[in-house]
Design brief:
six-stranded parallel sheet; 33% strand; globular
């Protein structure tokens, strides 16, 4: 029998010593567990919110301070053979002391630790103290001992097994924290305990349950496994610590990614004597097709086009991330048409809630091991720590049907090849031993049901250029950093694992985080919440010839958000039209960890940016897109797409100048290309026309010129706002062409949202928007700057 007692109450935190500029005196401060120093100081009112204005700059001392967490608890004794202190997550380098006796040390945020403490527990009062070394001091000491290593930022994040983006990123603040970030408690047990349960499920209904036990007594043990009405029992002989139970569920319902089928999950129950473990599994197969440089996920024998998002930690302080918050973010990804999340390597292994939700919602998970944008040392404590964390999480996550790829790192192979690292390293290790040996060895041993990929970008072999679009995975950052978004058209990739374009957060999110008055693109708070190098300059440069020059903050905010949406639409439509040559796009990025101008579709306040609405259209199962003098028809469904294709060349006033009709049929999961007749493709007046394609209710528009070069009339429209249950309905009827119509109700009430954005109306067409949440003035809802379009009267 085993029992678990959480130790989450009665904690205090004290600043022990600091090499930074310590501001407040912190001694015996009440602390929340799970939690961290920053959230404890914030709750006590001793620091300002690091997410607001530039408060982050005044909190750097926290990461240079040693912190002591302490609690006192009563213990009534136990008849069990063992009592263990179980630490699910300590951040990061810590020494643990129980009743004055040191019981162990830790050096890795990414793994759990267990310490035998029965002999130290006293009946009555007990004191547990955890002393956290300053993260900077720990990392800088390892750097001094092992030699410096190049990285993307002047921070020592590669010298400590800690969430790298804690040290700041080009979308995140520098909030280097410490604390007990996951549950902690005492587990008591006798005879034996289930130390590890590792189910490996297959598409044919087989599941091999690998079990490891820890023993306090050497006698035979009875182990059983049950799933889908099938039960098998084995005996673990005296002295043995491992066993495998194999079960076969006849004719199982297969788990599919969303858009390809349902997500049936089966309850798996493991019993060891009187202990029980439960978890849900799904039956499916996963392969990675690498034929001729391809990078294609094949689920249950069917190739899957990945429509994904990169995922970063949803908060700089992970203990604040709840299942409800994850569920909201996942729902936003699914509603945008995504079928995949890539857990990026600068973050962390996510919680059970994360992978459970992915299983339930049919989101494929690409899991990076937590290495990103730096050369990592392989000596000192790191090889042992990396192996320990990899073994723990590969085993922990094995049951999840959604998990389809283990990836060694983010951009480190590219960095070593292309970023000038080799000269700086002078022969020192950089992580190759992890990505090419240790990690694939662990995955092959513990989880042979899933493919392993050494890193991204990666072309399939160590001696190949890693970011070659023609092989494997590519990251495209020429667009945004140096090139206009039209440059996406020069790529013919196999799989795009990262590409993105910045846009500011929603008005309500930015206004809540920045107290600047007036609010301008260059005001101090706005600039502090832009972490990319020359980010605002790139935003303006990126407008190029696509949109007018902004006049003031309101224009800047609207135009740069529109441009972000158009840039990503352009790239996604290009790459989807290349299927099956290209079999995936993973947008950088779904979410933010704080309020910031970034590449996200959902901002740090959880609000959907205009990009999100554009991605919902670009990721739709059925898509029409003009590409290279032709119309591409993309059918990402299991049914043929047949019908009459209408092609029209219209004047901006809506007059039909040319019209063609053609019957088309696109096979399931297929693409087709229809050459444009010359009378349609060649405009008579490039500044005064628009090309329209329609098939079965799906529409695509192409304007011959960029917006400033078009002879748009000043937009004229009629608006009607009426109250309906749950909110307001806004009907907009265009009397002229209306380009990228958007309503921003959060400008009136931060609780208000709208169900669509960036809608282009031809003369005589109407669009209906639904506004929900908050209290909104109906009249203000249809006035500037809440209602915007590109060709609004100036």
């Amino acid at each position: 029998m085993s029992s678990y007692r959480p130790l989450h109450d009665g904690w205090t935190v004290t600043a022990v010593s600091s090499t930074g500029k310590l501001r407040p005196v912190v001694a015996g401060l009440p602390a929340s567990v799970p939690g961290c120093v920053h959230t404890d100081l914030l709750a006590a009112g001793l620091i300002e919110d690091p997410y607001l204005d530039d408060n982050e700059n005044r909190l750097t001392w926290i990461g240079r301070t040693a912190w002591a967490y302490e609690t006192t608890f009563t213990w009534g004794g136990t008849d069990d053979d063992r009592a263990d202190l179980v630490c699910a997550g300590l951040d990061t380098a810590a020494t643990l002391v129980l009743n004055g006796v040191e019981i162990g040390t830790t050096a890795n945020m990414h793994r759990s630790y267990r310490f035998t403490v029965r002999h130290l527990l006293r009946t009555g009062e007990n004191t547990l103290k955890i002393l956290f070394e300053p993260p900077y001091a720990y990392a800088e000491a390892r750097r001094a001992a092992l030699g410096d290593r190049p990285g993307a930022y002047a921070e020592p994040y590669q010298f400590i097994r800690k969430m790298a983006c804690n040290f700041g990123w080009d979308w995140g603040p520098t909030v280097v924290t410490a604390g007990i970030w996951r549950p902690i408690g005492i587990e008591t047990w006798s005879t034996a305990r289930l130390a590890e349960v590792r189910p490996l499920a297959h598409g044919d209904g087989r599941v091999e349950v690998h079990v490891t036990v820890e023993r306090a007594a050497e006698r035979p043990l009875t182990l059983s496994a049950s799933v889908g009405g099938v039960t098998e029992t084995v005996t673990i002989g005296a002295g043995q610590r491992r066993a495998v139970v194999t079960l076969t569920v006849p004719d199982p319902d297969l788990w599919w990614p969303r858009g390809y089928g349902e997500q049936p999950l089966y309850d798996l129950t493991i019993r060891l004597e009187d202990q029980e473990w439960t978890g849900r599994i799904g039956f499916r197969s996963v392969e990675l097709d690498r034929t001729d440089g391809a990078f294609t996920f094949v689920i249950n024998g069917k190739p899957v086009f990945v429509k994904g998002f990169n995922w970063i930690p949803d908060d700089c302080f992970p203990s604040r991330i709840t299942r409800e918050r994850l569920a909201e973010r996942f729902a936003q990804a699914v509603a945008a048409g995504a079928n995949c999340l890539r857990v990026w390597g600068g973050g962390m292994y996510e919680s059970e809630d994360f992978y459970d939700l992915a299983d339930e919602m049919g989101l494929l998970v690409w899991q990076d091991f937590p290495f990103a944008c730096a050369a990592y040392p392989e000596e000192g404590p790191f090889a042992a720590e990396v192996e320990a964390e990899a073994r723990e999480h590969v085993a922990r996550l094995a049951r999840h049907a959604s998990l389809v790829l283990w990836c060694g790192n983010n951009e480190n192979i590219e960095g070593h090849a292309d970023w000038g690292w080799q000269e700086k390293l002078e022969g020192r290790s950089w992580g190759a031993g992890f990505y090419y040996d240790l990690l694939p060895r662990v995955v092959a041993e513990l989880d042979p049901t899933r493919p392993y990929w050494p890193g991204s970008p990666y072309s399939g072999a160590p001696d190949l250029p890693p970011n070659d679009p023609s092989k494997g995975t590519v990251h495209i950052w020429t667009v945004w950093n140096t090139h206009d978004y039209s440059h996406y058209a020069t790529y013919t990739p196999r799989f795009v694992a990262e590409f993105g374009f910045q846009g500011p957060p929603t008005y309500a999110t930015l206004r809540a985080a920045v107290s600047d008055d007036p609010l301008t693109p260059e005001s101090p708070g706005v600039m502090h919440h832009q972490k990319a190098i020359d980010g605002n300059l790139k935003l303006l440069r990126g407008l190029g010839e696509h949109l007018p020059r902004p006049d003031g903050f309101d224009d800047w905010h609207y135009y740069t958000q529109v441009n972000q949406a158009r840039a990503m639409t352009f790239g996604i439509e290009r790459f989807r039209a290349l299927a099956p040559h290209c079999m995936g796009t993973i947008v950088w990025q779904l979410n933010d960890c704080w309020p910031v101008t970034s590449w996200s579709a959902v901002d740090g306040g959880g609000r959907r940016k205009p990009l999100w609405y554009a991605l919902r259209r670009a990721y739709a199962d059925r898509l029409l897109t003009f590409q290279d003098g032709a119309l591409a028809i993309v059918n990402d469904t299991d049914e043929p797409w047949s019908g009459e294709l209408a092609l029209e060349r219209l004047s901006l006033a809506g007059e039909i100048l040319a019209k063609e009709r053609a019957g088309v049929s696109v096979p399931p999961r297929g693409t087709a290309s229809v050459e444009l007749p010359e009378g349609i493709a060649r405009p008579g007046d490039p500044a005064g026309e628009v090309l329209v394609a329609t098939l079965d209710g799906v529409r695509a528009l192409r304007f011959p010129g960029e917006d400033p070069a078009m002879d748009y009339p000043p937009a004229e429209m009629d608006t009607q706002v009426e109250e309906i249950e749950g909110g307001l309905r806004v009907r907009v009827t265009a009397r002229t062409i209306v380009r990228d119509l958007a309503i921003f109700p959060d400008r009136l009430d931060p609780r208000a949202t709208v169900d669509d954005q960036l809608v282009t109306l031809l003369p005589g067409e109407s669009a209906v928007f639904h506004v929900t949440g908050g209290e909104v003035d109906p009249g203000a809802l249809v006035r500037h700057p809440v209602l915007r379009c590109v060709n609004e009267p100036r």
